[in-house]
Write a structure and sequence with these properties.
heterodimer; A: about 450 residues; alpha+beta; PmbA/TldD fold; 2 domains; 9-stranded mixed sheet; about 25% helix; about 35% strand; globular; B: about 500 residues; 7-stranded mixed sheet; 5-stranded mixed β-barrel; 10 helices; about 20% helix; binds zinc ion; protease (chain B); TldD/PmbA_N (chain B)
């Protein structure tokens, strides 16, 4: 439940706006964030931020103006000044050539299910202790250097508008852990990642065990330089999330589709886009994602299908694109989505995936990705952490840096198997405000004919 | 409690005493009394962003037993609690300590800074700005143009900096950014674009008057429109090795990615490894590494009208103008005070003597890290752009980045640009679309053989350089002449 003092303040702001005949949307954000950074096997920085933010958007006819405040939001004067600024911006605005959609909270939401007070106050000492334990266990075993970061905290979001009396409130905690082991002479890197929404979900022993399972292959074998050309690739969770994001970026944004800049621009709903094993949704009810129950136009977010069994089913329209192109908004006035690539029929467990793949490249992470030609869904990116050569279902050597340049339609059409087990992949960043975001992806995805365009002599 | 600076300053100074009393060797605070921003976007003529932002709060750092702790709050009545948080963070960090951080000798400073501005953009009525931008949008309309985007961005900050050495800095920051872009699909359905961002020749002031100076912004609308139609009619750049002439609109990104980021000391020391990446430069190379040809002179410069000029950095050091690469040899890096001792220890000799005044934070709620300032290439003696073209047998002139991919240690790169002009036997012949080029950093800078004179030198701003955890978006500048590189791999094999 939202703190009474702030709720009263924001509702009084809404009442003032109504009294003045102003159509206003109020969006409040509060975070308690802390992060420690590991560099050169030591803690390099430890931070803590407590921030409150208020965004107000005012709409009169075809004119819109907004104002944002990141300060101590406890006084009605401060709130009034922000509302006045938004109203002034609206008054001076240029009218749009379409009818903009005004925000309205569809139904009252009061969701604190994902909040863990222990994680909100998770101490920097506890983080340092876990990092120290891993460093102590593994550093003596080789010329290793450790880096990484661990962010945790709480986020509160509250959204109301003058359109009705409903209120949308969300409070949750989240944690994103990354630890990278780098071998100093040969420069290979291994990583371990964890996502959590409560404390106690993982221990130093788990991290040590995961590194330890990867180390022998990397220690005992020299780098494998694969051939340029089309190959079988077994993708792991971070790479799958990256492929999913690139695929959605290039093909499923309503605005880009309408502007014919999406690789799906020539397709209509019902067309076959991908292999029948591919189903993509934005599903806030999935347990592997942080699950945002509403967006910042007040839409109740429900499972939304983009691709079902390979068939084109939906496009994402925020209220701006929806208004401009006369479509229904789909609940995407937000930056933290809940994308899900559905699990498939492949056997459970990475070991089973390896046996199925037989001879392939195992690429669990894709880095430095970008879209050289979005209109074809073309992307490029390189292997980095934990990448290995698979022969007869066994890892035989670490992989030298390998670049993939392919298209999303090609990758999602060349599916051999998709694991029946899903995992959570944390995609949160800390640019501007805390916005927990995760995807649910299969633990592996096996693809044929993946286009390898460059191989290096180093990791 | 009254949260005016007259009350904040003594409260902060009391906390410094308390922190030093608690065993800290250093403490500092940045109070942002105002951090205003304005963001305007016209997309196909529709005003899609019309926002004013305001931030206010304090960020504090303490150094205890060689470990940093940072805390920030918007609640200015809770400054003491904020210092407690920073202290607890430093104590936690000290439990897993690496090379102890050390600020070196105390450098108490008192100073003020105000950038050169004629017209404060925040004093200009919104309606006047919108009319100006709408006129540009109208001039970009054309049957060959599918999408038009015109933006303006303004920042105004009043920042007070204090530290436990007695330093007191009071400064204003004021930045102006503008951009315009036209886009259309070509006959293959691939999106093509041509754009320009607000730039200058390095002279003048950086208020609203900069944006409205037609030489540096609005006057280019017709040109980008007609160049887009040339791109739409063009063939793709055929692959091959040829000379590459970078206009400053592309050269700035080449410098940013393969010199600027590689010379940030925190990257060199490995503190950005798991996020932004490392550097191919090692501490012992500073002073000896041949980074490029004799023609390469690169400096961290002070250019009056640039977002990379800020008077004093976020440790209170007065911004200096110094060489990074002198006649091709790496002589210095971008640094702050606390990492100098570690760099010298790792190098086994003194490679950095004083702070590179590059400690910068993007907001009150972010801790300063090593950042680019104005990373400039000095003008050369090889004449004008036309002189350099006249001297080129087989090459391309390239402008404005579309895509970039750079190795994590900045050792190699691949860039795509908006437009290429073919050069054959000393003349520009035709336009190519989809130009790309790639190379290895040191080899590429080693092939620099022509550097244009002052007439070719342009100041470009980067409003959105991302780095650090928690993540920070920083603004900075690059002053760049026209540059020619020999025998570069260009174009893509299908
Ligand atoms: Zn950058």
């Amino acid at each position: 439940m939202f703190e009474d003092r702030l709720r009263d303040l924001l509702i009084s702001g809404r009442n003032q706006a109504r009294k003045k005949g102003i159509n206003a949307e109020f969006s409040f954000h509060r975070e308690k964030s802390s992060l420690i950074r590991l560099g050169n096997s030591a803690v390099a920085l430890s931070t803590h931020e407590e921030l409150t933010r208020l965004d107000i958007s005012v709409q009169q006819g075809r004119k819109v103006g907004s104002s944002s405040l990141t300060a101590d939001i406890t006084s009605s004067e401060q709130l009034q000044a922000t509302l006045d600024q938004a109203a002034e911006n609206c008054k001076a605005a240029l009218g749009k050539d379409y009818e903009p959609i005004f925000g309205k909270v569809e139904e009252t939401v009061d969701d604190s299910a994902g909040f863990d007070p222990e994680l909100e106050n998770f101490s920097p000492e506890a983080k340092t202790d876990l990092y120290a334990e891993v460093v102590k266990a593994l550093k003596p075993k080789g010329k290793y250097d450790f880096s990484g970061s661990w962010s945790s905290g709480s986020t509160e979001m509250y959204y109301i508008t003058t359109a009705n009396d409903n209120e949308a409130y969300r409070r949750l905690t989240d944690s994103k852990f990354l630890m990278v082991l780098k071998e100093q002479n040969r420069k290979w890197e291994l990583s371990v990642e964890r996502t959590a929404n409560k404390t106690g979900t993982f221990m130093a022993d788990d991290v040590i065990a995961e590194f330890s399972s990867l180390l022998p292959i990397y220690e005992k074998n020299s780098g494998y330089k694969t051939k340029i050309g089309r190959q079988r690739v077994l993708f792991g969770p971070q790479a799958i999330a990256e492929l999913l994001m690139l695929g959605i970026w290039g093909g499923f944004f309503g605005r880009f589709w309408e502007e014919k800049r999406a690789y799906t621009a020539k397709n209509k709903f019902g067309d076959k886009l991908f292999d029948a094993s591919i189903t993509i949704t934005d599903d806030p009810t999935n347990p592997n994602v942080f699950g945002m129950p509403f967006d910042f136009s007040g839409k109740r977010r429900r499972p939304f299908v983009l691709v079902e069994k390979g068939l084109f089913k939906g496009l994402l329209y925020d209220s701006m694109a929806a208004a401009k192109y006369k479509k229904q908004p789909t609940g995407h006035d937000l930056s933290n989505t809940d994308f899900v690539l559905a699990p498939g029929n492949g056997p459970a467990g990475l070991e089973a995936g390896k046996k199925l793949a037989k001879n392939a490249l195992y690429i669990p992470h894709l880095h430095y990705t970008h879209l050289p030609d979005p209109t074809k869904g073309m992307f490029t990116g390189s292997s980095r952490f934990n990448a290995m050569r698979l022969e007869n279902g066994e890892f035989i050597a670490p992989l030298f840096s390998t670049r993939i340049t392919d298209t999303s339609p090609s990758v999602f059409n060349n599916i051999v198997a998709v694991s029946s087990i899903s995992v959570s992949q944390n995609e949160s960043s800390t640019y501007s405000r805390r916005m927990p975001e995760a995807m649910s992806v299969p633990e592996y995805m096996l693809c044929d004919n993946v286009r390898i365009t460059d191989v290096a002599d180093s990791f | 409690m009254n949260t005016k600076v007259d009350n904040i300053a003594p409260a902060v100074k009391n906390q410094f005493e308390r922190m030093i009393g608690s065993g800290c060797s250093f403490a500092d605070a940045r109070f942002y009394d105002e951090d205003s921003s304005q963001h305007i976007v016209l997309y196909d003529g529709n005003l899609e962003s019309n926002n004013r932002g305001f931030e206010r709060g304090i960020g504090v750092r303490v150094l205890k037993q060689g470990a940093w702790g940072f805390a920030a709050t918007a609640n200015l009545t809770a400054i003491s609690a904020c210092f407690d948080r920073a202290l607890a963070n430093a104590q936690a960090a000290a439990k897993l300590l690496g090379f102890p951080k050390d600020m070196g000798p105390a450098q108490p400073t008192k100073g003020q800074y105000r950038p050169p501005v004629e017209k404060d953009p925040f004093e200009i009525p919104l309606s006047e700005k919108l009319k100006f931008l709408k006129d540009i949008d109208t001039s970009l309309r054309d049957k060959t143009v599918a999408q038009r985007i015109v933006t303006a961005n303004f920042q105004r900050r009043r920042i007070y900096y204090w530290n436990s050495e007695g330093t007191e800095i009071d400064r204003w920051v004021l930045n102006t950014f503008g951009s315009m872009m036209v886009m259309s699909p070509d006959k293959d359905g691939r999106n093509q674009r041509r754009s320009v961002e607000l730039y200058s020749d390095g002279t003048g002031t950086r208020g609203y008057e900069w944006l409205t100076n037609p030489d540096w912004f609005a006057g280019h609308a017709e040109r980008i429109k007609s160049e887009l139609s040339e791109i739409l009619a063009a063939e793709s750049l055929p692959p091959g090795k040829r000379d590459v002439i970078l206009l400053p609109g592309q050269g700035f990104l080449q410098v940013h990615e393969t010199i600027g980021h590689a010379l940030e000391l925190d990257r060199i020391l490995g503190y950005e490894l798991s996020f932004a990446g490392g550097s191919h430069v090692r501490p012992e190379m500073i002073g000896t590494l041949r980074y490029g040809s004799e023609k390469l002179n690169c400096r961290a410069g002070v250019v009056e009208n640039s977002a990379g000029t800020f008077g004093y950095d976020d440790e209170g050091s007065q911004q200096r103008d110094f060489m990074l690469i002198d006649k091709g040899v790496l002589v210095n890096v971008l640094s702050c005070r606390a990492d100098l001792a570690e760099a010298n220890a790792k190098a086994g000799k003194t490679v950095v003597k004083e702070s590179g005044t590059a400690a910068r934070a993007s907001a009150f709620y972010r801790s300063p890290i090593d950042r680019m300032t104005n990373i400039n290439i000095d003008p050369g003696q090889d004449g004008t752009l036309e002189d350099i073209i006249k001297d080129t047998k087989d090459g391309v002139v390239l402008d404005v980045p579309v895509s970039w991919s750079i190795g994590s240690n900045r050792e190699h790169f691949h860039f795509g640009c908006e437009i290429a002009w073919e050069v054959k036997d000393g003349r520009r012949t035709k336009v190519y679309k989809n130009p790309t080029y790639q190379g290895h950093t040191l080899e590429f800078w080693g092939s620099l053989d022509k550097v244009g004179n002052r007439s070719t030198w342009r100041l470009h701003q980067v409003p959105n350089c991302g780095k650090g955890e928690p993540n920070q978006i920083m603004e900075l500048g690059h002053g760049i002449p026209v540059m020619r590189f020999r025998n570069v791999q260009t174009g893509e094999k299908e």
